[in-house]
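Is this the right way to post structure tokens for a design question? Let me know if I should format differently. Anyway, here goes:
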């Protein structure tokens, strides 16, 4: 029984129906769907492609927000051939074919106000999964890291500190929090709960902005989530009931709190095992060594749990 369960876990997603896959597509944040659409557009435009392809499943999603309304997106996902002919307009009835290899895609691009920017040029790399080598995977990730670095943003798929967004208003920050996927908001709430419970904290803290979001979907409604973000002190005292962003304005005379959290979710809820990791520290005190130790802890959490390595897009054996 244990061996059978392990086999099912390793093969997670192979038996996904086209309906389930499209439900997963519809649940993607809008800025990720745009990248999938870009890859599908390029793939379906090739003369050698005879069948209609659709989104199958995500492997790794990562984004950084260097400033308000600007994001750099990295998304590694599978596309799968259907029984419909290329050019099919209504793909709702298109069933997946199981006699064709998956297409492994990696895309990265800059968005402004939710739209993909032309500069830097969006990067799309799609290849049949069996033909994708480790060297190709490394080059595609390095390309995307370089794209964001040259554009003055944080390095994509890393979590170095930034001063971007210091002047965000509490209202704008609240809007950013409300737009977070539910599995990320749960981690922010966990960090806020722990921070506001400390006896040395005198003021109420609220979410300020995301720096890096990364998650891995290992199948069967299981995700491993990493989120690096800022919390900021408000003018409200700790323990304020219903601390709305309109009521509790941000204080600019206190340093930001840099938080890194990682945890496993099942069906959208944070699991107790492995124990969720929450690390928050005043931004000026966050050294490179501390940042590295934080990332390594989260990488090991997902790795020892049998998931692909969090915060990287190296080889994953799911859907083999």
């Amino acid at each position: 029984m244990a061996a059978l369960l392990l086999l099912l876990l390793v093969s997670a997603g192979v038996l996904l129906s086209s309906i389930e896959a499209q439900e997963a597509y519809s649940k993607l944040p809008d800025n990720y769907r745009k990248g999938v659409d870009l890859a599908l557009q390029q793939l379906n435009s090739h003369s050698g492609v005879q069948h209609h392809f659709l989104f199958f499943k995500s492997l790794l999603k990562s984004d950084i927000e260097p400033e308000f309304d600007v994001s750099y997106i990295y998304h590694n996902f599978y596309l799968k051939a259907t029984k419909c002919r290329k050019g099919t307009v209504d793909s709702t009835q298109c069933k997946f074919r199981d006699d064709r290899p998956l297409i492994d895609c990696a895309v990265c691009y800059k968005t402004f106000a939710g739209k993909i920017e032309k500069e830097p040029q969006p990067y799309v790399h799609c290849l049949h999964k069996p033909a994708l080598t480790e060297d190709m995977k490394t080059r595609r990730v390095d390309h995307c890291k370089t794209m964001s670095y040259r554009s003055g943003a944080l390095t994509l798929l890393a979590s170095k500190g930034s001063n971007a967004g210091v002047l965000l208003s509490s209202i704008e920050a609240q809007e950013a929090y409300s737009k977070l996927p539910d599995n990320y908001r749960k981690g922010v709430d966990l960090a806020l709960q722990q921070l506001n419970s400390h006896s040395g904290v005198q003021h109420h803290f609220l979410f300020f902005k995301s720096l890096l979001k990364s998650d891995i979907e290992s199948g069967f409604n299981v995700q491993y989530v990493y989120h690096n973000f800022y919390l900021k002190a408000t003018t409200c005292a700790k323990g304020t009931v219903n601390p709305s962003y309109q009521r509790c304005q941000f204080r600019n005379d206190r340093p930001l709190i840099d938080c890194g959290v990682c945890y496993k979710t099942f069906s959208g809820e944070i699991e107790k095992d492995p124990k969720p990791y929450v690390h928050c520290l005043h931004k000026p005190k966050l050294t490179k060594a501390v940042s590295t130790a934080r990332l390594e802890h989260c990488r090991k959490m997902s790795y020892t749990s049998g998931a692909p390595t969090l915060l990287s897009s190296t080889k994953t054996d799911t859907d083999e």
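Format looks fine. Someone answered above. Worth noting: The domain at 16-150 is CATH 3.10.450.10 (Nuclear Transport Factor 2; Chain: A,). Residues 1-15, 158-167, 312-320 have pLDDT under 50 and may be disordered.
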